[in-house]
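User: Hi! Is it possible to get a structure for several chains at once, not just one? Here's what I have:
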Amino acid sequence: MARVIRSTVIDAPVEAVWDVIRDFNGHDRWHPAVAASQIERARPADCVGCVRNFRLESGETLREQLLTLSDLEQTFSYCLLDTEVPLFNYVAHVRLYPVTDGDRTMWEWESRFDTPKGREDELADLVANGVYVAGFDAIAAHMGIADA
Amino acid sequence: MARVYVSSVINAPAQQVWERVRDFNGLPKWHPRIRDSRIEDALPSDKVGCIRNFSLQNGDNLREQLLGLSDYDMFCTYAILESPMPLSDYIATLRLTPVTEGERCFIEWSAEFSCAPEDENDLVEGIGSNVFQGGFDALKRHFGG
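Assistant: Yes, the chains can be modeled jointly so their relative placement is included. Here is the combined structure:
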């Protein structure tokens, strides 16, 4: 099983970053890899158990289910249900921590998953850099701030 | 329960910062408010359960007991046994988390304790600014930012 973890510091208060990323259906507005997204069955995007159905810019379609959402701990987790990308048993966790010194945000994004034999490094790199680090940069750009 | 939470970012890998703060008897080496420290009963300072007996620059004396220490998760938890502060049931944790983007780490210092309601604001402010943030500022100076 592969494990990927990436973290960064964003120069904005934790409430402001959380306000953007807590929307489970909002990633098509800020993540460069996501072309379009919708929540199935017209459920609210903060309803635990809801499924987002989205298409990547590269054309693949994915379905992910919200497993946890906490406004208190500023964290959410989700798993991949169906995908044209060969990631199996994929569960990811996103968590924000306040940096009280300077009113900034520490952002951690991690996951575990299985891959077809021999493709572990390639797919771990895709998740780590193509999804997580690209997401960090995109949020900073979306919010009009530089990485701290 | 009163609660204090202070966090910062140090411009050095977590492992390097951990080497500086993991020694339960090492406060005088890195924290400017601590004058001297010893471990009671000549125990090793990484023996969980050991007690550090230390003095502040102003002469106040404290005794604290190590409750938990993890080199894997890089945290240390301890309780105050005796201090001049009007509080009880004080338990604190100092924790480091690596930041993968950039040569830096995230540091958190938190505490919970009981006290009289009229003392709470002063205690939370004093511990948060002087002890916790004061320690972070010293680490930031040492590691250059």
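Chain A has three helices and seven strands. Strands of chain A lie at 2-10, 34-39, 51-56, 61-70, 75-83, 88-99, 104-114.

User: Great, thank you!
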